[in-house]
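Each letter names a residue; structure tokens follow underneath. Both lines appear below:
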Amino acid sequence: MNNWIQIKGVVKAGHGVASGKSSDPRFPAGTIAMQKACFQERGLSLDDYYLGTINLSIAPHQYKAKQAKYTFRQVKWSNNDPAEDFSFFDCRIIIGNQQAIKGLIYYPHPETKPEHFQPPDILEIMSSFIQNLHYGNEVIIEVNPQQIEIS
């Protein structure tokens, strides 16, 4: 991919349901662990990714989904909730002067999501586990402008 767009973001606390860090008994291992097999069946392996998300605020900017790398419709991953639509977009994370880390923007479509909504400046990022990444840390995210628009 060429012409990545870089934008600075700040790591923020999320709901904790993606990783299972919340106290919600419906998602003891996290929602992404529960969804992983559904995505695998549709052609996306999450084996190289930590099963949680980095909530990255790009405020004052916002994003708009354009052409996802993957979109999965009507994913029935929970017996207690209706099916949802999900999209994934390529990204890379740069922390300090380290080499870029491959990632995916995890995007549960708000129109099919029953709860745990995100503000319009928050990107949910999946990557390998990143040691010593903390709330309040600034990172650079690179996105493909053909897949996602930053405004």
Observations:
- The domain at 5-15+52-150 is CATH 2.40.30.30 (Elongation Factor Tu (Ef-tu); domain 3).
- The chain is about 5% helix and 35% strand.
